[in-house]
Amino acid sequence: MAVFSCLRCGYAYEFLVSNSYTRKLLTRSDHCPKCDRLSTFRFMSVSGMVGRMPCKPVDTPGPSYATLYWRKQQTGKSASQPLNEVCKKNEF
Known about the structure:
There is one protein chain. The protein has 92 residues and is an alpha+beta fold. It has one domain (2-51, 60-79). Helix content is 16%, strand content 27%. It has 2 helices and 4 strands. It has helices at 63-73, 83-86, and strands at residues 2-6, 12-15, 27-32, 37-46. The protein has a 4-stranded antiparallel sheet with strand order 2-1-4-3, covered by helices on one side.
């Protein structure tokens, strides 16, 4: 699971990713329910991981904090789509 945050409003959601994708996912475009428009989501952290993260971007919260942050921020429908539909060529 990875946590993504909207660059416009800060809306965050959790997204199921396989381990092979984790290093490639830095940003992704998706529909933000809070902004109600297509916006860029930034990779925040991998949720559910214990210990140090293999490739954590600078100034992002640790997994447990990010998951808590996502649960606090999440309202309404989730913005996630199946990864294979969004990411057919390993790029966004």
